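Quick one: structure for this chain?
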Amino acid sequence: MSRYWQSGPGDSPSDPRLRILLLGASGFVGGGLWRHLAARHEVVGTFANRAIPGLVQLDLRDERRLRALAADGFDLVIHAAGLVPLEAAEADPELAHRLNVRPVEVLLAAVRDSAAKLVFFSSDNVFDGSRHQYTEDDLRSPVNVYGRTKTAAEDLLLADGGHLVVRIPLVFGRGPWANSFLARLAGPTTPARTDLVCAPVYLPSLGPALAELWARTGVVHFGGRDVVTRFELMSKVQQALDLPTRVVAARGEEAASRCRRPPRLVLRSTRHRLLGPGLDAALAHLAGRSPA
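Got it. Here's what it folds into:
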């Protein structure tokens, strides 16, 4: 499945059309999910600050509005919103908890008496980066505020039962509205760390993979096929798109990071065999050299 942005067996025209609430549809990951799912299902997507036609406004801290929206007869509630930048979470742990943990409590209460299932997007940052790779059964040990909020949110959802946690790594690509990944390559130079290793996922592969996985409960991982450093990834993207930036190798002590980052986060699964596409295939698609 090296080109997993194509429709898979769980994504055929004969599959039932679902009514889905997609929280965070205006974001980078949420936008990628929206692009795939809205073409196949009835999707209500949300935005927080950046108004986008077709999406509804929602502040996750507006608990009454969040509860009412989640209880409005959906089959699936996909939670891909929250405070994402690691440095922002580290700088304001209280805000990180309000945006990454408390909404899960509200959502669980809202869907408890309905048939709706919650699908929560979590992170490889629930791990400390000390292992060669991580599966769903490995012990979580977050080393930063963002990872701790994701761990707390996972605990709430898993204790309730019947829902799904999808852990993902660094995601790369071009979103329909938000382009937080490519924004990192917007300056004349792009520092990229040689001491951070991951198995990044290509954004268009997330929607098809999710459609294959959302019938499950508990925890699943979805990682990319290739294992690379941040420097290798950024260099390959810069070359594939011929971007006017120079990717500069950096290490932790040179990057002046304001929060601790796990050094090696490679997600693998014991629950399924899906992987995102290899980097060469993904970058050829991103650069327009291969069809979707």
